[in-house]
């Protein structure tokens, strides 16, 4: 089976003070780190969906082994990014997409590897859980991509599609928190400065 990583990194990050694709912390670029997690965790290929700050973000990815898609309608929310990413993958041969977000700074390759170890094929719906709470990454088998694209609106992403289906939860709370970051850390005056 072929698994393709899909990193959603298009938002403006208004509460963060700038696009999250441009955020750096003491461990480096969130964008580069998230792309590496997908690759190191077991994805055969990685595609990054950009929007706000796409030019600068693309520069950050210059040395990464990742494709780039720009969601022109990124301002509509995560749903627009997810639609753009899945549409880009539809022309390839991936059996499943592993979708994650750029603003999960404690996500590790171990989380992804555990999630993928449970299986990923064209019919799969699975997601990481943190202390029983569903989170990211999410595995979407190719058979579901059309339905996800049809229902992905606003900032809900695949939530509505997944709500009515059996989704395998894979507990990963011992590996990460799964918490997203919407605001800069108190000690980081400019989170988008390299």
Structural summary, described in words:
There is one protein chain. The protein has one domain: Spore Coat Polysaccharide Biosynthesis Protein SpsA, Chain A (Alpha-Beta Complex), CATH 3.90.550. It has a seven-stranded mixed sheet with strand order 5-4-1-6-8-7-9, sandwiched between helices. It is an alpha/beta fold and 194 residues long. The chain has helices at 30-40, 54-60, 78-90, 109-117, 145-151, 159-163; strands at 3-9, 24-25, 28-29, 45-50, 67-70, 96-101, 125-130, 133-141, 168-171. Helix content is 27%, strand content 24%.
Question: Could you give a short description of this structure?
Answer:
The chain is an alpha/beta fold. The chain has helices at residues 30-40, 54-60, 78-90, 109-117, 145-151, 159-163; strands at residues 3-9, 24-25, 28-29, 45-50, 67-70, 96-101, 125-130, 133-141, 168-171.
How do the strands and helices of this protein lay out in sequence?
Layout: E1 3-9, E2 24-25, E3 28-29, H1 30-40, E4 45-50, H2 54-60, E5 67-70, H3 78-90, E6 96-101, H4 109-117, E7 125-130, E8 133-141, H5 145-151, H6 159-163, E9 168-171
Parallel strand pairs: 1-4, 1-6, 4-5, 7-9
Antiparallel strand pairs: 2-3, 6-8, 7-8
Total domains: 1
Q: Whole-number radius of gyration?
A: 15 Å
Strand content: 15-25%
* Number of continuous helical runs: 6
**Could you tell me how far the N terminus lies from the C terminus, measured between alpha carbons in angstroms?**
37 Å
CATH architecture: Alpha-Beta Complex
Q: Report the strand count.
A: 9
User: Could you tell me the mean pLDDT?
Assistant: 87
Low-confidence stretches: 186-191
- The CATH superfamily is Spore Coat Polysaccharide Biosynthesis Protein SpsA, Chain A
- Give the helices and strands as they follow along the chain: EEEHEHEHEHEEHHE
Please report the first level of CATH classification, the CATH class: Alpha Beta
Strand arrangement across the biggest beta sheet: 5-4-1-6-8-7-9
Backbone shape: globular
Sheet of most strands? 7 strands, mixed
Instruction: Briefly note the structural class of the backbone.
Output: alpha/beta
Q: Roughly how much helix do the residues carry, as a percent range?
A: 25-40%
CATH topology: Spore Coat Polysaccharide Biosynthesis Protein SpsA, Chain A
């Amino acid at each position: 089976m072929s698994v393709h990583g899909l990193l959603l990194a298009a938002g403006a990050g208004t509460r963060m003070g700038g696009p999250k694709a441009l955020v750096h912390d003491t461990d480096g670029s969130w964008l580069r780190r998230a792309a590496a997690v997908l690759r190191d965790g077991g994805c055969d290929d990685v595609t990054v969906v950009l929007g706000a700050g796409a030019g600068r973000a693309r520069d950050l990815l210059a040395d990464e082994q990742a494709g780039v898609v720009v969601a022109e309608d990124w301002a509509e929310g995560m749903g627009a990014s997810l639609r753009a990413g899945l549409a880009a993958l539809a022309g390839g041969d991936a059996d499943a997409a592993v979708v994650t977000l750029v603003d999960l700074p404690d996500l590790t390759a171990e989380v992804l590897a555990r999630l993928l170890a449970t299986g990923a094929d064209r019919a799969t719906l699975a997601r990481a859980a943190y202390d029983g709470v569903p989170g990211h990454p999410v595995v979407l088998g190719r058979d579901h991509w059309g339905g996800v694209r049809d229902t992905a609106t606003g900032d809900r992403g695949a939530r509505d599609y997944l709500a009515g289906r059996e989704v395998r939860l894979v507990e990963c709370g011992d590996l990460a928190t799964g918490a997203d970051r919407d605001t800069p850390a108190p000690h980081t005056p400019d989170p988008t400065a390299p």
